[in-house]
Write a structure and sequence with these properties.
heterodimer; A: about 110 residues; mainly beta; 5-stranded antiparallel β-sheet; B: about 110 residues; about 0% helix
Chain lengths: ~110, ~110
């Protein structure tokens, strides 16, 4: 039962252009959505998050959009840089207060071409 | 450097054996999580502890167990190891169990079962 899905295993983008990474979820009982970035041989690093009561959050080159009716979120990176090449994981945190564990998607490998 | 320390970084062991993975959370963090990442898989939540008590459990096998000690470090014990247990095991920590708290990951422990 994959509650958080990233349907694109990989994405290739030219340097300077926009990267758009997508994520879908099936459970309406999520409080927060997060994006993590992972380089090989390193642990995931927190990138940006959004509360379920918002539809957009921006931090520098990174913007996350949340469409609750479609159960869809996306991460926009503008402009993309070669150093952004990594695996990006979408994650969701359930509401209810008992736990803030993260449920992860399977990741999207972003390659930014110079 | 996330501040979450995991040891050992690499471990090779034989089927049927038992291993212990150790995690020191970031200073001040009370909650510890364990995740498993197998080849081509996303991060699967195993278990969460908060201030020494189990908080949430995921699809953790009965052969696996964990605990969080009074000094807040945590150990994940994997026994009767099988080839399929070969994976990257991540520990993570956060200040509390409140949804939206940033969760910081260690660099992982690579387990190879031969």
């Amino acid at each position: 039962d994959q509650q958080v899905k990233q349907n694109s295993p990989s994405l290739s983008v030219q340097e300077g252009r926009i990267s758009i990474l997508n994520c879908d979820y099936t459970n309406s009982m999520f409080d927060y959505f997060l994006w993590y970035k992972k380089y090989p041989a390193e642990g995931p690093t927190f990138l940006i998050s959004i509360s379920s009561i918002k539809d957009k959050n921006e931090d520098g080159r990174f913007t996350v959009f949340l469409n609750k009716s479609a159960k869809h979120l996306s991460l926009h990176i503008v402009p993309s840089q070669p150093g952004d090449s990594a695996v990006y994981f979408c994650a969701a945190s359930p509401s209810g207060g008992a736990t803030n564990k993260l449920i992860f998607g399977t990741g999207t490998l972003l390659a930014v071409q110079p | 450097d996330s501040g979450v320390t995991q040891t050992p970084k690499h471990l090779i062991t034989a089927t049927g054996q038992r291993v212990t993975l150790r995690c020191s959370p970031r200073s001040g963090d009370l909650s510890v999580y364990w995740y498993q990442q197998s080849l081509d898989q996303g991060l699967q939540f195993l278990i969460q502890y908060y201030n020494g008590e189990e908080r949430a459990k995921g699809n953790i096998l009965e052969r696996f167990s964990a605990q969080q000690f009074p000094d807040l470090h945590s150990e994940l014990n994997l026994s009767s190891l099988e080839l399929g247990d070969s994976a990257l095991y991540f520990c993570a920590s956060s200040v509390s169990v409140v949804s939206g708290n940033t969760i910081y990951f260690g660099e992982g422990s690579w387990l190879t079962v031969v």
